[in-house]
Amino acid sequence: MPSRSELSLYNKYPWAIPVVPDVPEPFFAQPKPWDFSEPVLKLIEEMFEEIEEFFKLKNLPVEVTIYEIRNVFGYLHVEALSSQREVYSFLEKYKKLSKDLN
């Protein structure tokens, strides 16, 4: 199986491409390129799949705005906004799962 990458996941899940906020100093709002191991990339892919499946089951378009995905103190941290509360549960679930991979 080919290895995963930030670009391959964005191609598979275009809704997950980070949005850069319109702020006076956009340099600090730019998402940093990913530097995740293959197990963490797999976890991110699973998270995206679960989020997408949730919206499919509700017969809704994917309503998630991602600002950044990064490692914070050994945990996967996703800065995101969604109108669906359940999305935040998914983000927290994968944050906890990521600890075992670092």
Give the gist of this structure.
The chain is α+β, with helices and mostly antiparallel strands and 102 residues long.
Number of domains: 1
- Whole-number radius of gyration? 14 Å
Helix fraction?
Answer: 40-55%
Weakly predicted, low-confidence segments? none
Q: Average pLDDT value?
A: 89
Q: Count of helical segments?
A: 3
Q: Could you say which structural class the secondary elements and strand pairing correspond to?
A: alpha+beta
**Order of helical and strand elements:** HHEEH
**Strand numbers in spatial order across the main sheet:** 1-2
Note the beta-strand portion: 15-25%
Shape: globular
Largest sheet properties: 2 strands, antiparallel
Distance between the termini: 22 Å
Number of strands: 2
Topology diagram in text:
Layout: H1 6-12, H2 38-57, E1 64-72, E2 75-82, H3 85-98
Antiparallel strand pairs: 1-2
Helix pairs in contact: 2-3
